[in-house]
Model the fold of this input.
Amino acid sequence: MQDTEGRDVELRYFRDVDGREVDFVVVEGRQPAHVIACKWADAPIDRGHRYLTLRFPAAEAWQLSAVGTKDFLSPEGKASPPSSSCIAFHRVCSEGS
Done:
């Protein structure tokens, strides 16, 4: 598959034998480029999300919540905003282009 800029990427799901999981992992050049965990409500940074972002620090990492209102930040500085923040940010960026 290709992203919006024409780069070859793969969309994967991650789960290991210890039960750590991440909903979406976008892989580019055999390395995770984006790590995205999805939650329904506010939640601290998920352990699967933290595990992958520690192993692949160059990957852009997000944990989104559907109805949450709080922002969380992991000890490593990874963001977990409510999805409404991301949607509003996307709207502003889209209107500006």
User: Anything to note?
Assistant: The first helix runs from residue 47 to 55. Residues 10-96 form one domain. Residues 87-97 have pLDDT under 50 and may be disordered. The two ends are 25 Å apart (CA to CA).
